[in-house]
Structures are given as structure tokens and as C-alpha cells.
Amino acid sequence: NKTETIPLPVFDFDDYMIRKGKQVNKALDESVPMQHPEKIHESMRYSLLAGGKRVRPILCVAACELVGGTEDLAMPTACAMEMIHTMSLIHDDLPCMDNDDLRRGKPTNHKVFGEETAVLAGDALLSLAFEHVAAKTMNVSPERLVQVLAEMGNSVGSQGLVAGQIVDIDSEGKKISLSDLEYIHIHKTARLLEASVVCGAIVGGADSESIENVRKYARYIGLLFQVVDDILDVTKSSEELGKTAGKDLATDKATYPKLMGIDEAKKFAEKLVDQANQQLASFDPAKAAPLYHFARYIASRQN
Ligand code: GRG
């Protein structure tokens, strides 16, 4: 089995995720205090603290610790990544985009607070992400902070999330190629995961070679994340078959299983885990353990 070519160091990954997740949740709670005007802060907190796996902030902290930094150095940047992610979910759920009623098992932001407030809550979270990094990061050089802010900006804007979203919207109902599908996923999903890891490494004091290694690692797990999402769509749909027609089969959306078949998609996912973990070869294996396990975790996630 090709996936066992890289032995994983002994490491309790579930415990790691729980511990880091708690620290991230505490820091997120403190990052948006309830204050005047209450409605906007309530709306921001509603989505930011609504649960979620905290994959991006935990990856950011893990990358910082990988290169010898501490959790404290990375926490403001880690929170900023979750703020950006939450903003993108709030806006993605709006009636003018995906028009979704539920997110993370709860009514979407606009369903609770109205569309005007949901748009503004997204704007405020995006703006706060940059302010939070600039104002709250301690013991990191101004040069490194500027690098982080540039990476963050690029990951959200017209070369990042926004690029993926607009190409996705434009391809609706059309037949798209595998390379178009990859473009969408690299920008909508992988780019923010990449920025999370890269920014964590920058604040942690990484040299440019290490930054590029973790960037490549993140690109592979970003694509992996989406391939797994598509596979889950099919497996979930077939479990529900009988009740409703398979969700994925019922839409025009291009997915990896549709374009290459479910077995090939699963093989592709395994290959991406290997390729991701190969990028970590130059790091101390004990320090790289969380990131090794992260790739596995993303490949085997069930939701
Ligand atoms: C308004 C500047 C601006 C940008 C928004 C709407 C948009 C542009 C982009 C959409 C981005 C989007 C919704 C990408 C999908 C991301 C994705 C894979 C979400 C699921 O992430 P998980 O599984 O979710 O980490 P949890 O809930 O666990 O955090």
C-alpha cells in the first residue's frame, strides 16, 4: 500500500486537535468582544463562534511550532485566518451566492440577522482579520508582519478566494474540464489553507526555503481537502439514496468522482497525502508530527 511508504511518528493527533481547538476558540472569543453597536458584534460572534473544525488556525499554529516558534506568536494570525474563512462562508451563503439556510448545523447568518447585517458582518470580520494581526501580534519583526499581511491579502483577493468564487459562479451549468475544476479548488479552498500554513511559518521565524516547503505541503493538502469533500458528497448521497436522489448526482456541479470515477478519486487522494508529507522531509520528524497527521486526518475525515 503506497500510503504506508512514510511511517507516521507516534503522536496523539485527536488530543492535539482538542487541545489546540480549545486555545483557538478561547482566543477567537476574546477577539470580538460584545460592544456597541451590539447587532453587528452579535452577528460576527454568531458565525465566528458557531463551531467548525478550526483547521486553518490549527494549521497556522502547527506551522509556527514546526519552525521553532510558539503558539502565542501565531495566535493572532491563526484567529485572523478563521475570521477570513468565516467571512467567506457568510458571504457564500447569501441569497445572491449559494442561498443556503444552514451552516455548521445552524441557520445561516442572513437567516438570523438579515442580509444587510450578514454582508456587514463579513466585511467587519475581513477588516478585523488584518487589524488583529497588526495590532495583537507580539515579538515578531515588522518585516515579517508585513509579509504576513501581504500573504493574507493575496489569499482573499482577486488572485485568491474571490478568483475561485467568480470562476465557480461563471462555470455554473457549464461543462468544465479537470483543470478548470482544479483552478476553482486551488483558489476557493487551497489558497487560504496555504496562507494559514505559510503565515504560521513566517511568524515562527522560518527561512525562505522552509516557507516554500510548507507552502507546497499546504497546496497538496488543500487539493486533498476538496477531493475528499467530493468523495464524501458521493458516499453521503448514496447512503441517502432511497430518501432523496444523490445530491451530487442531481446537480451539474463538476466533481473529481464524476470526472475520474470514485476509485480513481480515492487513489488520487492517497497520492496527495504522500506528496504533501514528502514536503516535510527536511524538518525534525517530531516537530513535523502534527502536520504529517493533518494530511491523514483530512484524507479520512467524515464531515
Ligand atoms: C467577500 C472578499 C470576499 C470574499 C468572499 C464567497 C467567497 C468570496 C468565497 C467562497 C469561499 C468558500 C465558501 C470556499 C469553500 C471553503 C470550504 C472548503 C469550506 C468548508 O471548510 P471547513 O470544512 O468548514 O473547514 P468548517 O465549518 O469546519 O470551518
Automatic annotation (TrEMBL):
Which cofactor is recorded for it? Mg(2+)
Q: In which pathway does it act?
A: Isoprenoid biosynthesis; geranylgeranyl diphosphate biosynthesis; geranylgeranyl diphosphate from farnesyl diphosphate and isopentenyl diphosphate: step 1/1; Isoprenoid biosynthesis; farnesyl diphosphate biosynthesis; farnesyl diphosphate from geranyl diphosphate and isopentenyl diphosphate: step 1/1; Isoprenoid biosynthesis; geranyl diphosphate biosynthesis; geranyl diphosphate from dimethylallyl diphosphate and isopentenyl diphosphate: step 1/1
By what name is this protein known? Answer: Geranylgeranyl diphosphate synthase
* Transmembrane segments annotated in the record for this chain: none
Organism (species):
Erythroxylum novogranatense
Q: Which domain of life is it from?
A: Eukaryota
Family the UniProt entry places it in: Belongs to the FPP/GGPP synthase family.
Q: Name one GO cellular component term.
A: cytoplasm
> What keywords sit in the KW lines?
Carotenoid biosynthesis, Isoprene biosynthesis, Magnesium, Metal-binding, Transferase
The record's Gene Ontology biological-process terms are:
carotenoid biosynthetic process
Q: Show the GO MF annotations.
A: metal ion binding; prenyltransferase activity
